[in-house]
Amino acid sequence: MNLGQKLTLKKEEENKVIYLVGSANTGKSAMFHLLTGKSVVISNFPGTTVKFQEGKMKLGKEEIKVYDTPGIYSLAGISEEEKITLRMILENRPDLIVHIMDATRLEKCLSLQLQIADFGIPTMVALNMIDEAERLKLRIDVEGLSKKLGVPIIPTVAVTGVGKKELIKTALEEMNKKEITPNHVYYDERTELEVEKIIHLLRRSEVKTWVPLRTMALWLLMGNEVIEETVMRMVEKEASNLEVV
Amino acid sequence: MKLFKEVQNAREELSRMFNESTDLHMEKILIQESEKILSEFVSRPKERKKDFLSKVSDITAHGRFSIPIFIVTMLAFTLFFIQTGAFLEEKMFSLGTTYISPVITFIIPALIPIELGETLAFALSHALVAFLAIVIPYVLLFYILLAILEDTGYLARIAVLLDGLLSKIGLYGKSIVPFIVGCGCNVTGVLGSRIIEAKRERVLTVAILCMAIPCCGRIVVISGFVNRFAGPLWVIGTFVFSAVMVLVSAIIGSRLLPGERTGLVIEVPPFRLPRIRNILLKVYMNVKEFATIAFPVLLIAATTIAILRSYGVLNVLVDVFSPLMVGWLGLPAITVIPLLYAIFRREEGAAMFPVAAGGIAAVESLLKPYQVFFFALLTAVPCTATVVALKREFGLKTCAKIFFLTLLIWYFTVGVINQIIRLI
User: Fold this and answer.
1) All domains of chain A in start order, with CATH
2) pLDDT confidence band for A243 (50 / 70 / 90)
3) Three-state SS for A127?
4) Which is more confidently placed, B201 or B375?
5) Quick check: B293 contacting A, CB < 8 Å?
6) Interface membership of B30 toward A (CB under 8 Å)
7) Cβ contact, residue pair A104, B270, below 8 Å
8) Cross-chain Cβ contact B23/A223 below 8 Å
9) Is A82 in CB contact (< 8 Å) with chain B?
10) How many whole angstroms separate alpha carbon A227 and alpha carbon A57?
11) Which secondary-structure segment (H or E) carries A125?
């Protein structure tokens, strides 16, 4: 549900940064190889990528940094991969997140997308392995899904290069958007009330972050360790600044 | 802090209200929402006939045929590996002895006209031929077979099959992932062990990994060296013995280090026909990486061996370790040289043995088959690259513990077997 929150995005001089994010074994590394031409291990074994791989992509005269990330199922910060990925996103604030989904197993990808949307970062979906979905005779209403999620969706086959042009074109458009309106999930009334309270507290404690306060509040409520440690650090920093004064 | 206290209060209040923990409650809403979206925009065909690949997928992952299929596949792969390897080895050997050895034995003594030149030429030519014949064919084949297992998705099914076995003997379920990733290079396995959150389980897993999961270098020692000097049956024997050692150390280790035991959650990828291009690319990347590290080490190893021999240090070294080698392990005294090199890189142990022994033919007359087997087991000590990775991941203390523990276990086991053989 769109709660109508608008975010102004940063304007940067330095290289733009794209993160390839997604569940395990959806083809992130294959996509990384397709976009950057850099050789990485592409495998049909989940968990092959354990660290962030950095590569570069030339778009016109612009050079863009692309990162391959370990596979995650959620951003709850439970497994080590989730923690690493969440921390990297919080620290670096990528200009674009390309969420690689496995078209044959959308059920494992959608709730991750609902969480990614909370960042308020321009996001697009690469609906990967679309050839296998066709073989299995799955019918996916791409346009409807795209409207519902509020992000562009490009069907791709990363290992053969299907959809590459379209993906890059859309990526450029999304990255240069001045403003986006993320779609948030509406939890129930009771939960939303508590979320409001925490937002209020966060505002008062002057936590400074690019992450929407509502998102911070949601994750704090879910007991996300990475967010807790981030808030803790910020508050400590604030306190030490006061002491200096 | 006030903020966290308030958050805690909110969590408690919500969990009282909904009768479940707050994170679970919120997670459920997310999942409901995504299921709603899924049913709205994705439709599956009602009853689809299972195609060939899905059928293969079913019988390999579970059911009563899965384990026989696993054993047969592994045996078939091993036999193919040994046979093709031996064939390539022969070709490369004659290639090396006709083209490389004569050139080296001509050029180097001409450049260095002292005794060292002769020794160096001897070391280099034997090291190069051994590398070309014993190392390269097996590295190449190993990476091809591994890539096929991986890209078809069978590797993930092996993980599931072995997970059942491992959890029965008390090993942590997730251990199987670093084990499988660590086939090929233990360093990758050490890094891959990051997915195990609990420290003790992680250390135990890595210790077993370093001890018994064959990396590419060890595959070379087992398949190249053991196959050449003892025969294919001993190759299978070495693999089986290593597997038994994994089981035994897992059983003992999990008793000594009892901890939480959670099952493995692994995504079993669909069975796919592997793409030749991706396999070739992967094999190329792996072999290239292997060669760029292993080849310079080989040159350095051959040079140091020549220098040490020229100045008589080699004999001192051999004499010092002779009681351990000959008395306890039942191996020729010079075995200490290749074993020292195996600590740098395991495959150098195989490549340097002929150099230390005085030629490939000399190894044949020097070693009995069971001694070849002993040697292969003793090279299972973590190599330098693995030790560096261990130190980075766990710190010096744990790293030293793992290194010396594996060293001790193998030298003890082999020694005991040797003493038993002597008694008989």
Assistant:
1) 7-180 (3.40.50.300), 189-244 (no CATH)
2) low
3) strand
4) B375
5) no
6) yes
7) yes
8) yes
9) no
10) 31
11) strand A123-128
* Mean pLDDT in residue range B332-359: 87
**Interval B253-309: pLDDT, tens:** 777 766 655 555 666 777 778 888 878 888 888 788 778 877 888 888 888 888 888
Instruction: Tell me which residues of chain B, numbers 46 to 105, contact chain A at a CB-CB cutoff of 8 Å.
Output: 48, 51
Give the per-residue pLDDT at A140. Answer: 93
Report the distance separating Cα A198 and Cα A48, nearest Å: 38
Cβ–Cβ below 8 Å for A50 and B194: yes
Q: Which residue has the tokens 């062990």?
A: B193
B30 to A228: CB separation less than 8 angstroms, yes or no: no
User: Best residue in A222, A224, A229, A230 to probe B by mutation, most B CBs within 10 Å?
Assistant: A222
Residues of chain A with Cβ-Cβ distance to B156 below 8 Å are: 44-46
The whole-angstrom distance between A47's CA and the closest CA on chain B is 8
B203 vs B247: CA distance, rounded Å: 16
Q: Following CA atoms A139, A142, A148, A152 in sequence, which dihedral angle do they give, to the nearest 10 degrees?
A: 160
Partners of A180 in beta bridges: A7
The DSSP secondary structure of A79-118, one letter per residue, reads SHHHHHHHHHHHHH--SEEEEEEEGGGGGGTHHHHHHHGG
- List, in sequence order, every residue forming a beta bridge with A124; answer none if it has no partner: A98
Reduced to 3 states (helix: H, G, I; strand: E, B; else coil), residue A210 is coil
- Give percent of chain A with pLDDT exceeding 70: 85
Cα separation of A73 and A24, whole Å?
Answer: 7
Nearest-Cα distance to chain A for B382, in Å, is 21
**Residue B396 to residue B145: CA distance in whole angstroms:** 35
- Give the nearest chain A residue to B17 (CA atoms): A190
Does residue B174 have a pLDDT over 80?
no
Residue B224 per-residue DSSP state: I
Q: Where are the beta strands (DSSP E) in A163-214?
A: 179-180
Instruction: Give the rounded distance of the alpha carbon of B39 from its chain centre.
Output: 45
pTM of the model: 0.71
CB proximity B16 to A under 8 Å: no
Nearest to B151 among A24, A43, A136 (CB): A43
- The residue of chain B nearest to residue A115, with distances taken between CA atoms, is B30
Name residue A68's beta-bridge partners.
A20, A53
User: Using 50, 70 and 90 to split pLDDT, how confident is the model at A98?
Assistant: very high
